[in-house]
């Protein structure tokens, strides 16, 4: 099971537990996410948390890589373990409103392991084409071998 699928499975039924009143949100600050604007999103997240009056129940920090580098910027919400990907300025208020304040993870922003980035799709397509070409080459070699064997048999007889 891929990291994305595992993440989605963990979060699908996750609803904020009334007894769990503390959350930790870690915005990935590893190199790829930083290059894609993670710092600005972390600042925006802090502002949204204050605007929603959640500063006593939600702690934020600059976190480590969440393993979804090609889908960054990412952030993890604990204790649920949800990892949000492809974050942008529109996603942050939605996550704060729906998940951190409302208790319902925003599934549309949690990768499910099925959605591929364009480069992943291209790599899969190339791999499929390479396998098909290899199969075709094996068949052609087998045919050529049979034909050669038949020609040799004709010359011998
Ligand atoms: S660099 Fe951010 S998830 Fe890996």
* Structural class by sheet pairing and helices: alpha+beta
Distance between the termini: 59 Å
Strand order of the largest sheet: 2-1-3-4
The domain count comes to: 2
State the fourth-level CATH superfamily of the largest domain. Glutaredoxin
Number of helices: 5
Model regions low in confidence, pLDDT < 50 over at least 5 residues: 12-19
Q: Please state the second-level CATH architecture of the largest domain.
A: 3-Layer(aba) Sandwich
* CATH overall fold name of the largest domain: Glutaredoxin
Give a list of the ligands.
FE2/S2 (inorganic) cluster
Describe the main β-sheet briefly: 4 strands, mixed
- How many beta strands in the DSSP annotation? 4
Q: What is the helix fraction of residues, given as a range?
A: 40-55%
Shape: rod-shaped
Account of the 3D structure:
With 157 residues, this protein is of the alpha+beta class. It folds into two domains: 3-109, 3-Layer(aba) Sandwich (Glutaredoxin), CATH 3.40.30; 116-157. The protein has five helices and four strands. It has helices spanning 3-12, 31-35, 38-51, 91-101, 118-156; strands at residues 23-28, 58-63, 75-78, 82-84. It has a four-stranded mixed beta sheet. Helix 3 crosses helix 4. Mean pLDDT is 83; it is low at 12-19. Bound molecules: FE2/S2 (inorganic) cluster (FES).
Features:
157 residues; alpha+beta; Glutaredoxin; 2 domains; four-stranded mixed beta sheet; 5 helices; 4 strands; 50% helix; 12% strand; rod-shaped; binds FE2/S2 (inorganic) cluster
Can you describe this structure in just a few lines?
The protein has 157 residues and is α+β, with helices and mostly antiparallel strands.
